[in-house]
Amino acid sequence: MARIRVAVVGVGNCASSLVQGVEFYRRSSGRSAIPGLMHLELGGYHVGDIEFVAAFDIATGKVGRDLADAVFAAPNNTERFSSVPATGVEVRRGPTYDGIGRYLNGVVSESPAACDAVAKTLRATGAEVVVCYLPVGAEIATRWYAEQALAAGCALVNCIPVFIAKDAVWRSRFEERCLPLIGDDVKSQVGATIVHRVLANLFCERGVRVDRTYQLNFGGNSDFRNMLERERLESKKRSKTDSLTSQLEERLSDAEAHIGPSDFVPWLTDRKWCYIRIEGTSFGNLPLNCELKLEVWDSPNSAGVVIDAIRCAKLALDRRIGGALIGPSSYFMKSPPEQFTDYEARARTEAFIRGEPEESIEKSIHPIK
Length: 369
Known about the structure:
It is globular, with a radius of gyration of 20 Å. β6, α4 and β7 form a beta-alpha-beta unit. With 369 residues, it is α/β, with parallel strands linked by helices. The chain has twelve helices and 13 strands.
């Protein structure tokens, strides 16, 4: 198969985990399940077929350096689980716009380099898929990079909670250009959102009414530091809340479903701790309550999902499918254009990978009663 030429926007912890992960699994083989990876081969594309051809950032310690070095530069603090050889890809200076929040001032030093002609670079490097890893709250910058992807003829995988795939206007623009779009806000492999969704679905499917719930998260990476600025959290909080409440037969109000980042704890580095509580009413109107704590390495927890999303975007390019990819977006992202249960989202994604119409699996998921 051909290589998948990928450009990365934002060389933070998530980009570090993605770049390390591609190298870590590059020579993996066999048919047995590999821990931590959902698909070694997807639609004929191996993990090792991903090739990074461009990268953009604003930080002094990253701009101008090889991507292999930039992914380990401060303030990145995720686990170093793979060595990365030189890529030959120089990280270029992108525009800042609203990419630096109040609490990252002084932590991230802006590069004095001139801003790159991003769309021109995407075309020159032959980039096919752009992966957006900008900080939470970077609304203007995310939309600007979406414009560059359109201008350069690239698919877009939007991993942050700025609504591109969820927005009908943006979806139509990518559809008109026959460019695939997967978004928004990446749903980690086994993270707070999917664990909370599965638990909520379990309550509903077993006849227990969900009355109220919370999800409190904290960690020590730049994302959590940035989210101390509550004004930047509006879309993130909406994304996580809607992802959960979409699974409930009776929607909870924001007062009954409290979901969102809680605090920044520096010594946790890129680890994330999540506390979830669900309170419900069961048989005989008696209470049934559930609490759990989840600990993960935050950025590596999303890397395998993005590897699959990149390959789905490439399959869509090969098949000349433009616009939002409904099944893959619903499986990989918290805020897709359409919400399904995670079971149905996975079935739709597997059908997409096989090249079957997603509607073909609906009868098996929703049999006629």
